[in-house]
Amino acid sequence: MTQTDDKTLCALVEEKYHESHTSEFIKLIQPAKHFCKNCGRSAVNQKNLCNPEAL
Ligand SMILES: [Zn+2]
């Protein structure tokens, strides 16, 4: 049980979890190919993200 188990990604992004705990957030969204460091969203195509990071 971690602090993220009972929280939605939406709530985590709202509290900037993807910025403060980037690597933990990435574990929650994999196997996504890319993730946005601004919005916390994940996508197959990095062109769909405003600040993409390859996973
Ligand atoms: Zn974005």
Q: What labels describe this entry?
A:
55 residues, alpha+beta, three-stranded antiparallel β-sheet, 3 helices, 33% helix, 15% strand, globular, binds zinc ion
Classify the helix fraction into a percent range. 25-40%
> Termini, distance in Å?
24 Å
Q: In total, how many beta strands?
A: 3
Spatial arrangement of strands, main beta sheet: 2-1-3
Choose one word for the global shape. globular
Which sequence of SSEs, written as H and E, runs from N to C? Answer: HHHEEE
Number of helices: 3
Small-molecule binders: zinc ion
Radius of gyration: 11 Å
Q: What class do helices, strands and sheet pairing give?
A: alpha+beta
Overall mean pLDDT? 93
List low-confidence stretches.
none
Q: Beta-sheet strand percentage?
A: 5-15%
Largest sheet: number of strands, sense, barrel closure: 3 strands, antiparallel
How many structural domains does the protein architecture include? 1
Structural summary, described in words:
By secondary structure, the chain is an alpha+beta fold. The chain has one domain (9-54). Helices cover 33% and strands 15% of the residues. It is built from three helices and three strands. It has a three-stranded antiparallel β-sheet, with no helix packed on it. Strand 1 (34-36) and strand 2 (42-43) form a beta hairpin. It starts with 8 loop residues before the first helix and ends with a strand. The site of zinc ion has 7 residues, from loops. Zinc ion is lined by residues 36, 38-39, 41, 49-51.
